[in-house]
């Protein structure tokens, strides 16, 4: 995985979640708290999710083959999507079921100091992991808000870890509230309510992750800023006079495919056009280093065809297409 920041955040989250999972299961064994059991399963699921992200990053590094000529960059998207499924099924649905059972059949919490102590420890450990994810994300986020960063990031690892850690911290607060109310009132139903809230929270986060990774799996175009850089680098004003239309596609977080029809002078020779295309490809790669696969088709600009608009069927017509249009 080329994004070392993403790997660092994943490893930090994995270490924290493994330690937290063990402590939660120990607390459940001594106290019988369903919130502790749900939180233990949640941390165990999170640990598995981080392992999946590391596996996806490793598999994405494989070289292209004749069967997969564009490489394996999308492996990272596939494993990130698997994370959302695990979080929904193992984490969310289990917690909802456990919360329902505890509300239906409440019982007192024994040895209260075990769950309370573990929850305080878990909040500190998750806070450390969350802080690492925020620090690494800030290096890539730029001026984007956090919601924009999660929606627009092409590398799935950091958004996944951010949402997982954020959900874990809120879940721990809910668990602490459920255990605390159960102890104060002497009614174990509050422990079940806290567990149910944890399950609903995890399901909501899993749905957000699924929607974002689904979009990446379907194939997203380059960002608006990258499109502008590509168009500016493509045109030299001499042989390449304009961009008739262009399509971009992320083959992976750090791999971009560019296909464009470019306008050239009608009296240029084949050798001049070929030289201009090679020069344009070099300029594009210098401006946008993740542009790995570039296909440029020369054509003569036609005002009649261009008037048809950015129609996929109108060849060679239409202006360059920007993301979202």
Describe the structure in brief.
This protein has 325 residues and is mainly α. It is built from ten helices and three strands.
Describe the structure.
The protein has 325 residues and is mainly alpha-helical. It contains ten helices and three strands; from the N terminus they run ααααααααββαβα. Strands 1-2-3 form a three-stranded mixed sheet. Helix 2 (34-59) runs parallel beside helix 7. The longest helix is centred in the first third of the chain and has 30 residues, at 75-104. The radius of gyration is 26 Å and the shape is elongated. Mean pLDDT is 84; it is low at 1-5 and 314-325.
Oligomer: single chain
Strand fraction equals 5-15%
Biggest pleated sheet: 3 strands, mixed
Assign the structural class, choosing from mainly alpha, mainly beta, alpha/beta, alpha+beta, or little secondary structure.
mainly alpha
The poorly predicted ranges are 1-5, 314-325
Mean pLDDT: 84
What does the overall shape look like?
A: elongated
| H/I helix tally | 10
Within the largest sheet, what's the order of strands? 1-2-3
């Amino acid at each position: 995985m080329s994004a070392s920041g993403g790997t660092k955040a994943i490893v930090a989250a994995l270490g924290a979640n493994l330690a937290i999972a063990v402590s939660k299961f120990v607390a459940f064994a001594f106290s019988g708290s369903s919130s502790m059991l749900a939180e233990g399963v949640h941390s165990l699921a999170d640990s598995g999710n981080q392992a999946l992200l590391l596996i996806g990053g490793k598999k994405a590094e494989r070289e292209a083959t004749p069967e997969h000529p564009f490489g394996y960059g999308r492996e990272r998207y596939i494993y990130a999507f698997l994370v959302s499924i695990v979080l929904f099924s193992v984490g969310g649905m289990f917690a909802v079921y456990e919360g329902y059972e505890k509300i239906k059949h409440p019982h007192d919490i024994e040895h209260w100091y075990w769950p309370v102590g573990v929850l305080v420890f878990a909040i500190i450990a998750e806070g450390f992991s969350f802080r690492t994810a925020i620090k690494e994300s800030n290096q890539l986020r730029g001026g984007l808000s956090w919601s924009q960063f999660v929606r627009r990031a092409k590398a799935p690892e950091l958004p996944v870890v951010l949402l997982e850690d954020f959900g874990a911290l809120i879940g721990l607060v809910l668990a602490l509230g459920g255990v605390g109310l159960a102890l104060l009132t002497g009614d174990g139903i509050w422990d079940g309510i806290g567990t149910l809230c944890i399950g609903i929270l995890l399901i909501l986060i899993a749905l957000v992750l699924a929607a974002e990774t689904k979009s990446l799996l379907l194939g997203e175009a380059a960002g608006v800023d990258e499109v502008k850089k590509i168009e500016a680098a493509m045109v030299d004003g001499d042989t390449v006079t304009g961009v008739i239309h262009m399509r971009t596609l992320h083959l992976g977080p750090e791999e971009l495919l560019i296909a464009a029809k470019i306008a050239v002078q009608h009296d240029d020779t084949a050798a001049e056009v070929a030289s201009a295309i090679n020069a344009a490809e070099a300029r594009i790669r210098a401006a946008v280093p993740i542009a790995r696969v570039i296909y440029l088709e020369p054509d003569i600009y036609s005002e009649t065809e261009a008037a048809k608009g950015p129609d996929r069927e109108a060849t060679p017509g239409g202006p360059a297409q920007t993301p979202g249009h």
